[in-house]
Structure formats: structure tokens, C-alpha cells
Write a structure and sequence with these properties.
Elements (H helix, E strand, L loop, with lengths): L2 H30 L3 H11 L8 H11 L13 H5 L2 E5 L9 E5 L10 E3 L4 E9 L4 E9 L8 E12 L6 E2 L4 E5 L10 E6 L17 E2 L1 H7 L1
């Protein structure tokens, strides 16, 4: 082999060794120093605010840190604690109604601005204005460990004139959460109340043949 051929072979072998070395370093470097995307994924898995992933397990963490707000009793949201001076203008199931409409005994707008109270201790998960006939809505999740079937229920208060709570706040049974409204003038003043055993569903239509996830509010409150 000529001197030139030896030199060429040496360069080729050196280049191959260098290439393999670089590949090894890159592979190892990736394993030790993940990309920013990998770091974000790892952080999300380890960060408590992202874990657990299921709805109920999320509330397990929330109420474990705030056991004072676990529920042990329920009251009516108007005329507390037993609905004094109010009546149900529309029952659950009437015309496919998914809640109960509560009015003051004076009728019309005589109850406009009347106080609405939380039916039990809980955690406010929603307090927003919603268009198209809903008005202001407040939703509260209640941890109710004594119930034999479902440890969580949700109370849903709609058509409010004023909201006195914000999402992320804790609330106690009988605490003011808002006032009775008209859903931006769409109806005469009343409170639309729903009780749900499937928590964190969408706002929904208020009327439906399908009652899955909904409870009869009065039956539930009177029982507990």
C-alpha cells in the first residue's frame, strides 16, 4: 500500500471513529439532559397541580387539605334552612325540567334581590355569567362521605342577580352566595336550583328527557 493510500485510509477510519463518538455523546446527552418539551412533561407529571387526573381524586386533594368544608348536612337555598316563605313554581321533571324553580310567596319579581345561600359546605367551582337564558350561575361541589353511593354532589344556582362568591373559594352551609335574579330580564325573578351526583358536567340545557347525573333537589335536601 502506497503512502498516499495509507494516509487516505487513516483519514477514513478517523472520520468513522469521530462520527460514532458524536452519536454516542448525543445519545447519552439526550438521556441526561432532556429537551425543554420533555422537561415540561416530567414537570407536569410530578407537579401536584396536574395530578391526580380524575375529577374526584382532584377534589380528594382539595378537601383533604380543607376538611372544615366537608359536608354533613344540607339546607334549602332560600328561606333558610327550610324554605320558609318560598314555593316551587316548577318541580323537577315537570316539562322535562332538570331542576326546581323557587319563588317567593309574593310571586312576580317580589323576590328579586332576595338572598341565596349555599345548601352545604363546599368548594365553588364556577361563578360566571352564561348567555342565552341562564344569567349568573354559581356551582358548588360538596364532599359528602356519609352517602352510601356517591361521595360528591354538586349544587347549581342559576339566574342570579348578584354573585357574592368566586371560583376557587370555600363556602359554608347557609353562607350567602348570591341573590335571586331574572336571567337578564328573561324571566320573572326566581332561583333555578339543580342538584347533581355527576359533578363537573357542562352547564346543560336546563330541560331534558335524560336525567342521568341529576337528583331531585328537595328529596335530597330533606333526606340529608
Amino acid at each position: 500500500m502506497s503512502h498516499h493510500q495509507k494516509h487516505t485510509s487513516f483519514i477514513l477510519i478517523s472520520s468513522m471513529i469521530f462520527a460514532f463518538t458524536m452519536l454516542f455523546c448525543i445519545k447519552n446527552n439526550n438521556a441526561i439532559s432532556p429537551s425543554s418539551e420533555q422537561e415540561e412533561v416530567a414537570s407536569a407529571i410530578e407537579e401536584p397541580s396536574f395530578y391526580p387526573t380524575t375529577t374526584e381524586s382532584k377534589y380528594e386533594v382539595i378537601f383533604a387539605k380543607n376538611p372544615t368544608y366537608i359536608s354533613n348536612q344540607f339546607d334549602f337555598p332560600v328561606g333558610k334552612p327550610d324554605g320558609t316563605n318560598y314555593f316551587k313554581a316548577q318541580e323537577f321533571g315537570e316539562s322535562k325540567h332538570l331542576g326546581e324553580d323557587w319563588n317567593g310567596i309574593g310571586g312576580g319579581n317580589t323576590d328579586l334581590g332576595d338572598p341565596v345561600y349555599s345548601v352545604s359546605n363546599g368548594y365553588v367551582t364556577f361563578a360566571e355569567h352564561v348567555c342565552c337564558g341562564w344569567g349568573n350561575i354559581v356551582r358548588v361541589v360538596h364532599k359528602f362521605p356519609d352517602h352510601p353511593e356517591y361521595p360528591y354532589v354538586e349544587s347549581f344556582y342559576a339566574h342570579l342577580d348578584v354573585m357574592n362568591v368566586k371560583e376557587g373559594e370555600f363556602i359554608q352551609r347557609g353562607q350567602l352566595l348570591g341573590t335571586i335574579g331574572t336571567a337578564d330580564g328573561k324571566y320573572s325573578a326566581h332561583l333555578h336550583l339543580e342538584m347533581r351526583n355527576f359533578i363537573d358536567m357542562g352547564v346543560g340545557p336546563g330541560y331534558s328527557d335524560d336525567t342521568f347525573g341529576f337528583l331531585v333537589p328537595t328529596d335530597f335536601i330533606e333526606k340529608y
